[in-house]
Amino acid sequence: MKNKKHAWIFGYSKQSRSIAASLLAENFSITIIENDDKNFQDALSDGYVNSVLIDITADTELEKLDIKQSDWILCLMEDEYLNVFLTLSLRASCTCNQIIAISHSIYSTQKLIMAGANQVIDVYQVSANRIHNIFEKPITTKLMDNFISPSHEISFEEFTIPKNSFLDGAIIDEVDFDKFGIIFTGIVDKELGDELIFAASNINHKIDNGDIIICIGKNEDLVKFGKYLYKDIA
């Protein structure tokens, strides 16, 4: 048991809950670090007794953490600015540690890599490229597979764009998929053929009726989005 690995998880949210559970299954011990009292209380309620509430923007507070060289560091804050700040600050003092950070945009991904992250979980790119293909480490692969497994009620769904719907004629970059709680991962443009164009391709595409979009999210959110897609269509 003395060889048990330890992970420091910065940020306790829906995403980090799944990742924390996966690491526990891999026999990691875990410390949750939060700067939000509600999230901190949620972590304690979920059984993570080694949870700490600090001001993560203060280097002096980060320096007090007893992070060993063999420990894993996961920057999973919902605020991408804080993830970049944490990665940069922790890399300065934890030169040998494995640092994994989460990103929701290609811009943040580049910043996190430059800040010193060993691996970046780019939510858009991960979902578009089937998650397990972008990681070399089996444990990381396994925890990300768990993140979108049926046990967490998260899956992919295809939607054919109906005529006169709110997406008919819309530009992809102008659509706020976040408000529906889902992630856009790709589109099949019927005018170009049946090839799937991934979101990671950075193509700002105009959506037409008959096109097919692929999204990832919780099953209930995907169902709600499908209903909204057909809302007010005669």
Quick description:
The chain is 33% helix and 22% strand. The chain is an alpha/beta fold.
Structural features, described:
This protein is α/β, with parallel strands linked by helices. The chain has two domains: 6-150, NAD(P)-binding Rossmann-like Domain (Rossmann fold, 3-Layer(aba) Sandwich), CATH 3.40.50; 155-229, Regulator of K+ conductance, C-terminal domain (Alpha-Beta Plaits), CATH 3.30.70. The protein is 33% helix and 22% strand. The chain contains eight helices and ten strands. It has helices spanning 14-25, 37-45, 59-63, 80-93, 106-115, 123-128, 138-147, 219-229, and strands at residues 6-10, 29-34, 51-53, 72-75, 98-103, 119-122, 154-160, 182-188, 196-198, 212-218. The strands form two sheets. A six-stranded parallel beta sheet has the order 3-2-1-4-5-6, with helices on both faces. The chain has a four-stranded antiparallel beta sheet with strand order 7-10-8-9. α4 (80-93) runs parallel beside α5. The longest helix has 14 residues, at 80-93. It is elongated and about 60 Å long.
Topology:
Elements: E1 6-10, H1 14-25, E2 29-34, H2 37-45, E3 51-53, H3 59-63, E4 72-75, H4 80-93, E5 98-103, H5 106-115, E6 119-122, H6 123-128, H7 138-147, E7 154-160, E8 182-188, E9 196-198, E10 212-218, H8 219-229
Parallel strand pairs: 1-2, 1-4, 2-3, 4-5, 5-6
Antiparallel strand pairs: 7-10, 8-9, 8-10
Helix pairs in contact: 1-7, 4-5
Return the domain count. Answer: 2
CATH topology-level name of the largest domain: Rossmann fold
**CATH H-tier superfamily of the largest domain:** NAD(P)-binding Rossmann-like Domain
Quick check: average pLDDT? 81
List the total number of helices. Answer: 8
Poorly predicted ranges (pLDDT <50, ≥5 residues)? 127-137, 147-152
Q: Main sheet: which strands, in order across?
A: 3-2-1-4-5-6
CATH level 1 class label of the largest domain: Alpha Beta
CATH architecture of the largest domain: 3-Layer(aba) Sandwich
Structural class by SSE content: alpha/beta
